[in-house]
Amino acid sequence: MIRENLETVRKSIPSEVLLVAVSKTKPVADLQEAYDAGQRVFGENHALEMRDKHEVLPKDIDWHFIGHLQTNKIKYIIPFVRLIHSIDTFNLLQAVNKEAVKHDRTVDCLLQFHVAEEETKFGLSLEEAEEILGSDTFKELRNVRICGVMGMATNTDDQTQIRKEFHHLKEIFDTIKTKYFTDCEYFKEISMGMSHDYQLAIGEGSTMVRVGSKIFGARNYDI
Ligand SMILES: *Cc1c(COP(=O)(O)O)cnc(C)c1O
């Protein structure tokens, strides 16, 4: 079913929006099936799980890290990760930079914002982000590149609410772009939208959607 699901999802997404296939908790065979159907961009939310999958799967996969990243796990993904969506503290960004230096890499990152109503979701406020971006310490980080923003909407059926939160994230993106990245062509990504709300996210300006269960089926457990 994965091939069919992928085709359905792809058809529902404009070609300029990147589809990140969220394969967390799913076995390597499922990822291989998606790969064989042409998918090259995968999202994982556990560092060791992503490293293990990276080791056995084809090397032309773009690995996106989308979950809460603990600083002591950064080292497992830095050698190969293509984009970290979930920078939610300055400390984490500095730790990623430090590890990237060791590997002589520049690692692309997104700042994760808290735009949902739920208290549990990780993420920065605009004020916190501005504190980071305006600081001298940030300007000295040579091995990370901030390419945009990421966020999750409230888990609700209320479409007006979801749309409002995605719109808010787009506004945050615009504010930051204007203030800190006007001339940076690489600051262009808005990662928003999951299986149940990616159409709304695209409507509000998403450039990357992170779709899991609609491709791979429901997860038995959420880690
Ligand atoms: C699990 C997860 C997704 C995908 O969720 P689905 O509802 O299965 O599409 C997207 N983004 C993040 C950050 C996730 O943890």
Short précis:
The protein has a single domain (about 1-215), classed as Alanine racemase (TIM Barrel, Alpha-Beta Barrel), CATH 3.20.20.10. It contains ten helices and eight strands. It is globular and about 50 Å long.
Structural account:
The chain has 223 residues and is α/β, with parallel strands linked by helices. The protein has a single domain (2-216), classed as Alanine racemase (TIM Barrel), CATH 3.20.20. Helices cover 40% and strands 18% of the residues. It has ten helices and eight strands. The chain has helices spanning 2-11, 28-36, 47-56, 74-77, 90-102, 126-133, 136-139, 159-180, 198-203, 213-216, and strands at 18-22, 41-44, 62-65, 83-87, 107-113, 144-151, 189-191, 208-211. The chain has an eight-stranded parallel beta sheet. Helix 3 links the parallel strand 2 and strand 3. The longest helix has 22 residues, at 159-180. The two termini are 23 Å apart. The structure holds pyridoxal-5'-phosphate. Pyridoxal-5'-phosphate is lined by residues 22, 24, 45, 66-67, 152, 194-196, 210-214. Pyridoxal-5'-phosphate binds next to strand 8 and helix 10.
List the helices and strands and how they pair.
Elements: H1 2-11, E1 18-22, H2 28-36, E2 41-44, H3 47-56, E3 62-65, H4 74-77, E4 83-87, H5 90-102, E5 107-113, H6 126-133, H7 136-139, E6 144-151, H8 159-180, E7 189-191, H9 198-203, E8 208-211, H10 213-216
Parallel strand pairs: 1-2, 1-8, 2-3, 3-4, 4-5, 5-6, 6-7
The structure holds pyridoxal-5'-phosphate.
